[in-house]
């Protein structure tokens, strides 16, 4: 069917392929994708057109628009909304071999500014299939979220690091989740903190830097990194705080480099080896106070 604007409805086989992509999306994201009443009606008309040999009786070029609430973090705490538009027509006299690509527009999320959102939109790939495009957006948005979180915490260091440096020791009955451990290391530089993490049962965290920076760092970890953990599982206690010059040059994890792992799950730490490692750095007495 053609109109004054010279658009043509896709042939039945391509209509079916385009509708199939929508059906696949709805199967993959049953709780996260939304079609309004108009889109539902247009989709029904197009389904009938497939059965009727490609006749739809519409006077304007049909499109089906939907919104996908895409989770970009493992804990589903942060999402990004995508406006997806599926065209069902083509122009010119040459029938295409494939249905046209979906149009994808990124809505600005609350955790990202307009400029950064525009940058995300600018790098949306062209010519790729829809699922690859969605996966690309998810990956680039996750990196943008990490940058955004780091920028939020960087500003906390300038004022809080002007005073005396302290060393604070924290004790965990148990800490093992890899992503949670990685966050201790990843976000420490934003607060200008150094020290080490020793994971397992028990676990130790030693943090050096400004006293306020350390407090804000731990608050950030508990609210952001541990945001999806029930409060009764967030078991960590501060055991000892001392005024001291820095001993460590950065924040590192020493779990796999100090001592041998024991226990059925290899999660029992070798505290004797940790004690010897700290003794070489003049910190043996501090460890004794932490473990008392």
Question: Top keywords for this entry?
Answer:
292 residues; alpha+beta; Ubiquitin Conjugating Enzyme; 2 domains
Briefly summarize what is shown:
The protein is α+β, with helices and mostly antiparallel strands.
Task: Please give a structural write-up.
The chain is an alpha+beta fold. It has 2 domains: 7-152, Ubiquitin Conjugating Enzyme; 162-291, Alpha-Beta Plaits. The protein is built from 9 helices and 11 strands. Strand 8 (194-198) and strand 9 (203-210) form a beta hairpin. Helix 1 packs across helix 2. The longest helix has 25 residues, at 130-154. The protein is elongated.
Write the layout of secondary structure elements.
Blueprint lengths: L6 E3 L2 H17 L4 E2 L2 H15 L11 E9 L7 E9 L1 E3 L11 E4 L7 H9 L7 H25 L2 H4 L4 E8 L5 H10 L6 E5 L4 E8 H15 L11 E7 L7 E3 L17 H9 L4 H8 L1
Parallel strand pairs: 8-11
Antiparallel strand pairs: 1-5, 2-3, 3-4, 4-6, 7-9, 7-10, 8-9
Give the termini distance in whole angstroms.
83 Å
Assembly state here?
single chain
* Proper CATH architecture of the largest domain: Roll
| CATH homology superfamily of the largest domain | Ubiquitin Conjugating Enzyme
* Beta-strand residue fraction: 15-25%
Strand order of the largest sheet: 10-7-9-8-11
Annotated CATH topology of the largest domain: Ubiquitin Conjugating Enzyme
